[in-house]
Design a protein that fits this description.
binds S-adenosyl-L-homocysteine, alpha/beta, five-stranded mixed beta barrel, pyruvate-formate lyase- activating enzyme, binds iron/sulfur cluster, OB fold (Dihydrolipoamide Acetyltransferase, E2P), about 35% helix, about 425 residues
């Protein structure tokens, strides 16, 4: 079935969604669909949605309503991803602008549903791993490669296990072949993706074994990172592989969520603060200077001032380079949505603000320590401001260079001149000036 339809696609949410959009594009283009940059030129509009917090959900539905009412010739409107899975076909009733609602396991059906102009909600769980689909990567020289999909952890606040289904890992050989190909094509950075990459398992291959194989397959000129790591499943072998291989970035995102053991237990996280700190110690011992980031939720039900104070202490003690801080958002159907002790919105917000203030100071202090130092960076593309380029460090920091014109994918050594939070400004040391 070859179609000549023009599509526009927009993505909300995490890197998993960004890569799912690349997979969707792969599926559509294989059937003859062609992309357009302006939704006004599209015959099909696809929105890839995020359900992790209420705000994300409201935004994507608002965008659908806005796009649905904008054009005279109404395009086929498709809602993909986690919100689609969460509410399914009932969205078609409430949001008349939507024609097709498709969950994360059903994207292979999209060309058929669109060309038939069905009005349908499709939300089966199919244990899909999209093997054989050629993702349309848009972020050269950075690429995502999925290693596992779904999540079995059921953290009590989280909707992901409900909307993305059970954990499944892709075959090692196909992951390694994909990374090797990307490396050969000049990709400077590959990020292995999964909701909990540390629980990767395919036959006898666990995550440390996979990471080693990927590091060896990709060669020195491709950096490897991975996200997300669950602290309970981060094992010493993974840390050893990270330390051993030069091309594995010395950077880790390790969501802690709270600094209180009581709250961690209510969250069903499966570790204590002491165990978490032990992992941080292990990482820093094996890789001094490793760049660490985390996620924290403020205002979980039952979080007392004292519990919250422990989270503040944890941020002060670990001194993460960066942190993604959220206020708790109740997601219906999750275990936490029935918990007693829900906190008023103002308390959640006020705690979030306090965490932000503390982390901002730490981020600024730690970034400031890089000023004057020389770092290797990967040029990723033009910055928003004309005449500037964006680069990344192995620690995933952004560095802006002025007045350079290197091809994306070039590795350079730069001197950090100034830091503004997570963004840094660099210049070329004289030895490598053009
Ligand atoms: N699998 C990953 C990502 C999950 S979603 C992980 O385990 O880290 C990304 C982050 O969103 C989580 O780490 C958590 O901090 C936050 N989050 C998830 N559900 C939330 C909720 N109901 N309210 C607020 N933040 C939430
Ligand atoms: Fe959600 Fe926990 Fe799974 Fe992460 S590990 S996706 S926070 S349930």
């Amino acid at each position: 079935m070859i179609s000549d339809m023009r599509y526009f696609i927009d993505v909300y949410g995490c890197q998993m969604n960004v890569h799912d959009a690349e997979i969707i594009e792969g599926i559509l283009r294989a059937e003859g669909f062609s992309p357009v940059d302006d939704p006004g030129d599209a015959q099909v509009i696809l929105l890839v949605s995020c359900a992790v917090r209420e705000h994300a959900e409201t935004r994507v539905l608002g965008r659908a309503a806005q796009l649905g009412g904008m054009f005279k010739e109404s395009p086929v409107m498709v809602l993909c991803g986690c919100v689609a899975q969460e509410h399914g076909a009932e969205l078609l009733e409430k949001h008349r602008e939507l024609d097709i609602v498709v969950g994360p396991d059903c994207y292979r059906e999209l060309p058929r549903l669109i060309t038939e102009r069905s009005r349908v909600g499709l939300t089966d769980f199919r244990n899909e791993d999209y093997e054989g689909i050629q993702a349309v990567r848009k972020e050269f020289p950075r690429a995502y490669v999925t290693v596992m999909r779904g999540c079995d952890n059921f953290c009590s606040y989280c909707i992901v296990p409900f909307v993305r289904g059970r954990e499944r890992s892709r075959p090692r050989d196909s992951i390694v072949a994909e990374v090797r190909r990307l490396s050969y094509l000049g990709y400077g950075e590959v990020t292995l993706l999964g909701q909990n990459v540390n629980s990767y398992r395919f036959g006898k291959i666990d995550f440390p074994a996979l990471l080693r194989d990927v590091a060896l397959a990709s060669g020195e000129r491709t950096w490897i990172r991975f996200v997300t790591s669950h602290p309970k499943d981060l094992v010493r072998e993974t840390v050893e592989v990270m330390a051993e291989h030069r091309n594995v970035c010395k950077q880790l995102h390790l969501p802690v969520q709270s600094g209180s053991d009581g709250i961690l237990q209510l969250m069903n996280r499966g570790y204590t603060v002491g165990e978490y700190l032990e992992k941080i110690r292990m990482l820093r011992e094996a890789m001094p200077g490793i760049v660490l980031s985390t996620d924290v939720i403020a205002g979980f039900p039952g979080e007392s001032e004292e519990d919250f104070g422990r989270t503040v202490e944890l941020l002060e003690e670990v001194r993460f380079d960066y942190a993604f801080l959220f206020k708790y958002s109740e997601r219906s159907g999750t275990a936490a949505s029935g918990l007693e002790g829900a906190l008023p919105e103002e308390v959640r917000l006020e705690r979030l603000n306090r965490l932000q203030e503390i982390q901002r100071r730490i981020t600024v202090e730690k970034s400031g320590m890089l000023v004057g130092r020389e770092l290797e960076v990967l040029v990723t593309g033009p910055a928003r401001r004309p005449g500037q380029q964006v680069c990344r460090t192995p620690g995933n920091r952004t560095v802006i260079l002025k007045g350079t014109d290197y091809a994306p994918g070039t590795f350079l050594n730069v001197r950090i001149e100034k830091a503004d939070g997570w963004t840094h400004f660099g210049s070329l040391p004289e030895s490598c000036e053009k």
